């Protein structure tokens, strides 16, 4: 009898935890949702083009962790020690657990709308929420369709029976909310404001930063002539940080002559990590941005150093 009671309690807990969310059929036919899916597919395939990875379906191609792992490596410079092809369900779940743990740390959201089980079960709603969060975190300049909402049926199975409800799930904010967020970013980041000045004023700022860089790199016999390109592999950036902060970065910690995208990502990621440790604030910049020669991202990093070490 006691065993039956324990089993009964276990079943009750299982039922209590069984809540499912499903996008309503009408929302699945919404043109806005189709455009969002197309935009996310294009973003994934553009990001992973160099690796010859082509994703055709958000529902079918992300559940095993392979694509998400490659996105993590490209966008955050993190490549985990995982098998490339996870063929069994248990191996796929282990891989997803490791990848999502890393992603969740970098996305920094207190409450997520996805988990390992949902992604592995090819849950479209959870997959969309995850991908939108990744775009917003790693490449906020990428434009996604605004104001995409879906009607979701929430079904909860408990010992008392089945309860269902219909809720509205917001996948992307409306354009007004995005504009407000951008304005807040501009207020917090002086470089965002500087980059919106007249071209000649931006050029003057770049020349001042270039003079600052070369003044501090002269002692190691290096000279920079192109701010937009010469920092993309992370080498000069690491050397500059060492010169300014008065410490030596062991050559074993980074690649002095990087040739692959991964080596460049590692270098720049290390540089950004050092800046965080030194309390040099660089907002909305990811290693991927600098490696891809995003001028705004590179200038934000250099401007932060410029401001800390005597720049006007």
Secondary-structure blueprint of this entry?
Blueprint: H1 2-17, E1 19-23, H2 25-28, H3 31-47, H4 58-61, H5 66-76, H6 89-107, H7 116-120, H8 124-138, E2 149-158, E3 161-170, H9 175-188, H10 190-194, H11 199-217, H12 235-245, H13 261-277, H14 287-291, H15 295-308
Helix pairs in contact: 5-6, 11-15, 12-13
How would you describe this protein?
Helix 5 (66-76) runs parallel beside helix 6 (89-107), helix 11 (199-217) packs across helix 15 and helix 12 (235-245) packs parallel to helix 13. A three-stranded antiparallel beta sheet has the order 1-2-3. The protein is mostly helical and 312 residues long. The protein has helices at 2-17, 25-28, 31-47, 58-61, 66-76, 89-107, 116-120, 124-138, 175-188, 190-194, 199-217, 235-245, 261-277, 287-291, 295-308; strands at residues 19-23, 149-158, 161-170. The longest helix has 19 residues, at 89-107. The chain is elongated, with a radius of gyration of 24 Å. 56% of the residues lie in helices and 8% in strands. Strand 2 and strand 3 (161-170) form a beta hairpin.
Helices, by number, come to: 15
Please provide the ordered H/E string of secondary-structure elements: HEHHHHHHHEEHHHHHHH
Helix- and strand-based class? mainly alpha
Distance between the termini: 79 Å
**Count of beta strands:** 3
């Amino acid at each position: 009898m006691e065993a039956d009671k324990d089993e009964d309690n276990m079943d009750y807990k299982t039922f209590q935890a069984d809540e499912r969310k499903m996008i309503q059929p009408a929302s699945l036919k919404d043109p806005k949702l189709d455009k969002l899916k197309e935009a996310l597919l294009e973003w994934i395939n553009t990001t992973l083009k160099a690796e010859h990875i082509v994703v055709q379906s958000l529902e079918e191609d992300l559940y095993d962790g392979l694509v998400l792992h490659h996105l993590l490596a490209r966008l955050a410079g993190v490549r985990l020690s995982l098998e490339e092809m996870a063929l069994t369900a248990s191996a796929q779940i282990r891989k997803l657990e490791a990848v999502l743990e890393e992603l969740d740390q970098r996305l920094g959201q207190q409450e997520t709308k996805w988990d390992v089980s949902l992604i592995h079960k090819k849950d479209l709603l959870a997959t969309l929420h995850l991908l939108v969060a990744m775009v917003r975190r790693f490449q906020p300049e990428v434009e996604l369709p605004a104001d995409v909402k879906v009607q979701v049926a929430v079904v909860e199975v408990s010992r008392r029976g089945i309860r269902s409800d219909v809720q509205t799930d917001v996948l992307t904010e409306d354009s007004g909310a995005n504009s407000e967020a951008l304005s807040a970013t501009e207020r917090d980041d002086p470089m965002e404001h500087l980059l919106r000045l007249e071209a000649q004023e931006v050029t003057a700022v770049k020349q001042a930063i270039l003079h600052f860089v070369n003044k501090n790199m002269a002692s190691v016999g290096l000279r920079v002539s192109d701010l937009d390109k010469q920092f993309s592999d992370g080498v000069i950036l690491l050397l500059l940080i060492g010169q300014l902060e008065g410490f030596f970065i062991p050559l074993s910690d980074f690649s002095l002559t990087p040739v692959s995208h991964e080596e460049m990502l590692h270098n720049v990621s290390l540089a950004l990590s050092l800046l965080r440790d030194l309390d040099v604030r660089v907002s909305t910049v990811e290693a991927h941005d600098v490696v891809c020669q995003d001028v705004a991202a590179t200038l934000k990093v250099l401007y932060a150093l410029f401001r800390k070490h005597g720049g006007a």
